[in-house]
User: What shape does this take?
Amino acid sequence: MTTKELQARAIVQTLRDYGFTAYLAGGCVRDKLLGVEPKDFDVATSARATDVQKLFAHTLPVGAQFGVVLVMYDGNPVEVATFRSDGVYLDGRHPVSVRFSNAQEDALRRDFTINGMFYDPVSEQVIDYVGGRQDLAAGLIRAVGDPQARFAEDRLRMLRAIRLAARLEFTIVPETFAAIQDLAETIVDIAWERIGEEVIKILTEGKARQAFILLSESGLLQAILPEIEALRGVEQSPDFHPEGDVYTHTLLLLDKLEQPSETLALGALLHDVAKPLCRAQHGERITFYGHCEKGAEMAVSICQRLKRSRATWERVAYLVKNHLRLLSAAEMRPATLKRFLREEGIEELLALARIDALSSSGDLRPYEFCCRKLAELGPEQMTPPRLLNGHDLIALGLPPGPGFKEILDAVEEAQLEGRLLTREDALAWVQHYRHNAS
Ligand code: ATP
Ligand code: MG
Assistant: This one.
């Protein structure tokens, strides 16, 4: 048993010792029954937040008004929540009011039957008021109660249904899926932060391709990422893209993501997002000139819509903009290649280029060339110590100004090309350069 589980069990035991009802609850029960290690263990109890705060030495009242307290156990937080039934959701985000209640009502407020079970770690019994066990055994995602009402209450649940179905390879039951299709357009009524967080989980937790197929079928994709839906039917040259249209190609990349960073996952999703806009047909030939640059712009606005950080959208824009640059790496002059390979983000760019190639022609030569060069050159050759700096130029009697950068870059260029090896060579070279310039 993991430390996390032991800690959660100890918290349950303490609450029991003081006469409260307490169980492990929700996702961790589902995962335990599936034989998957839960990410975190949540505790549900009859104790109120104030009781919980009294019983444990280190607590954080993260949502005390909803009865949620974090109990810190050797530095690890365990979420302890009072049994409750949620009131009406006004903004599709937080219940306006909660009413503290019992385990059964707490099960009924949860989103899906498989997420609605409790586990009594003392008697080792599952407590199931919602038929979660049966659905878990059958591989089904089913809303607790009336799906329309439950999705209207909190629209995020629509995305959660798809994320869970894809990740667990479960089927969403027809009634629940039909409700998602009915309400898909209204997903945008909730905060984009929440949508963004969920999209990132979908992209990075595994089975992203399957999730995107469901997002598309449900109408959610059209509502949140119409630019991806627009990739459907965008035909490309069969010689470079035997796999088919841009949509098919993009989904193939998603299939090849393995525990990706947020930025790599978004880069894969968005790398060809401007192809519909940049497509041109010349007889048999189909081109997409400018799609990298235009795609980088679109990537920024999509990341902003999903409320990603500046660091994220800058990196994603870099990946989209440069995703074809590897193709010309073998023809680059040494200095250009070194500068390319030392760019921040190159590792992710290579990872993107690899899955891009594997999802189309299968030609990994440009990717392998760059990997080989990166290893061969190493930081010593890609980023050697500068031969000169601004002080040296001043000492040579040059007037400080914007021209300095140009000169120093030219010195570095010559250094990277192997034409300048020492500081003395570089000083002589600058004097010559200056002489010719004046
Ligand atoms: P994951 O494995 O991704 O953490 P999870 O089901 O554990 O999935 P959490 O966000 O950790 O998801 O939520 C824990 C539990 O809280 C869920 O299993 C479910 O019972 C309940 N829950 C979470 N979000 C909602 C929601 N929007 N509406 C209703 N119940 C929810
Ligand atoms: Mg969880």
